[in-house]
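4.2 Preliminary Data

To establish feasibility before requesting continued support, the project team ran the inverse folding procedure on a target of 65 residues. The structure was first converted into the token representation described in Section 3, and no sequence information of any kind was made available to the design step. The complete token record follows.
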């Protein structure tokens, strides 16, 4: 069932994992840590998290009964 406490917990865990994966994936694009465009990393990672939440609307296998 969508929007239960269990659904929100599962969806947020997935979204946070997606944000972390996206951010880590963007960092090596710069030659040094000082050259990382942190605004781009944060914006792209946040967008990935939002898309993850929207994708969760289609269903989460761990929440299905």
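Position-by-position output of the design step:
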């Amino acid at each position: 069932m969508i929007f239960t406490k269990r659904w929100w917990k599962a969806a947020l865990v997935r979204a946070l994992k997606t944000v972390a994966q996206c951010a880590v994936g963007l960092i090596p694009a710069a030659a040094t840590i000082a050259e990382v465009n942190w605004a781009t990393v944060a914006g792209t990672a946040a967008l990935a998290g939002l898309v993850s939440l929207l994708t969760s609307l289609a269903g989460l296998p761990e929440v299905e009964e």
